[in-house]
Specification:
Elements lengths: L6 E4 L4 H12 L8 E4 L12 E3 L2 H6 L3 E4 L3 H4 L10 E4 L6 H8 L3 E5 L10 E8 L4 H11 L2 E5 L3 H9 L6 H16 L4 H22 L3 H11 L2 H11 L2 H19 L4
Parallel strand pairs: 1-2, 1-4, 2-3, 4-5, 5-6, 7-8
Antiparallel strand pairs: 6-7
Helix pairs in contact: 6-11, 7-8, 9-10
The structure holds NADP nicotinamide-adenine-dinucleotide phosphate.
The site of NADP nicotinamide-adenine-dinucleotide phosphate has 27 residues, from helix 1 and helix 3.
Length: about 260
């Protein structure tokens, strides 16, 4: 693991900031004494025992890498000079150009973890715009503590992933909810229906991790088996499953693009 230097998380008091701070320290990526987190209202009780400050300029002074983890609505109130430092934003919809302009840094990345960061199971795509070749490796090391990381080649892809992987458990939960509703209509008790659907989602994730088969391979093997599941898959597809998912992701993508604050 490379040394990624001293890290500062602006908004380290928040939900995602806390998850990142815990992952960084818990995985040994950064020692607590090399981590500074900033807060606005107060220091959360359940976070890491690092250096805490309400002064973002102090945080910047103490850090080599600055993670911006405030809500997009609070971004306009952040006033820092991060010239020559690597700045990594996890804020949805805030552009690299805007971050460069407002922080004075020419080393800026955007990363998009999801809620599973708390468990070390996030998927985190990132886009980097920096003259420093090692900045990419720094971001990979930083977010590998939260799960799986990929570099993407266009900033717009981060807006797409805000809609797709950034949604975390939401879309699998939507599928599970539809299954529960169907089971309940057929007279199965809501508690049992919920337990069944939840266990299907959990088991599917575990199996995916265990056997490494791609989703396409999994679907194909069931279709090829020509059993009850194949009948279900074919009927779902004939009734617009892929189109419904495509339309949903498109709507979420357009919403993420609309969030983008053009400087
Ligand atoms: N939650 C997710 O799953 C997720 C996934 C991907 C990306 N994101 C992005 O991550 C960012 C943070 O989301 P979140 O869910 O962690 O929100 P959050 O829980 O509201 O955390 C934001 C934190 O920033 C603090 N803050 C606001 N202004 C500040 C300032 N000037 N200086 C220092 N701290 C300040 C807030 O303090 P207060 O306590 O005073 O409000 C709050 O503790 C957002 O931009 C979001 O788009 C979130």
């Amino acid at each position: 693991m490379i040394d990624i230097g001293r890290i500062g998380i602006i908004g380290g008091s928040g939900w995602l900031g806390t998850a990142i701070a815990k992952a960084l320290v818990g995985s040994g990526t950064v020692a607590a004494e090399r981590l500074t987190c900033s807060f606005r209202s107060g220091v959360p009780e359940n976070s890491v025992n690092c250096h805490w400050t309400s002064d973002n300029s102090e945080l910047v002074k103490n850090s080599d890498v600055i993670v911006l983890s405030v809500r997009p609505d609070d971004w306009s109130a952040i006033d820092i000079d991060a010239d020559k430092k690597l700045v990594v934003s996890v804020m949805a919809g805030v552009t690299i150009e805007d971050i460069k302009r407002r922080t004075g840094s020419n080393r800026v990345g955007r990363a998009l973890p999801n809620a599973a960061a708390e468990l070390g199971y996030s998927y985190t795509p990132f886009f980097i715009d920096s003259p420093e070749p090692k900045d990419s490796e720094t971001i990979i090391t930083l977010f590998r503590s939260c799960g799986v990381v990929d570099a993407v080649s266009q900033e717009e892809h981060i807006d797409y992933f805000t809609a797709m992987s950034g949604s975390g458990a939401a879309f699998p939960a939507l599928l599970a909810e539809a299954m529960i509703n169907d089971a309940v209509v057929r007279g199965i008790s809501p508690a049992i229906a919920q337990r069944a659907a939840q266990q299907v989602i959990i088991g599917a994730g575990r199996l995916q991790e265990f056997n490494g088969a791609s989703p396409s391979d999994t679907v194909k093997s069931f279709v090829d088996y020509k059993g009850t599941t194949a009948a279900g898959i074919i009927a779902m597809r004939q009734n617009g499953f892929d189109a419904a998912v495509g339309a949903g992701l498109d709507a979420a993508f357009r919403k993420a693009q609309a969030l983008s604050t053009k400087p």
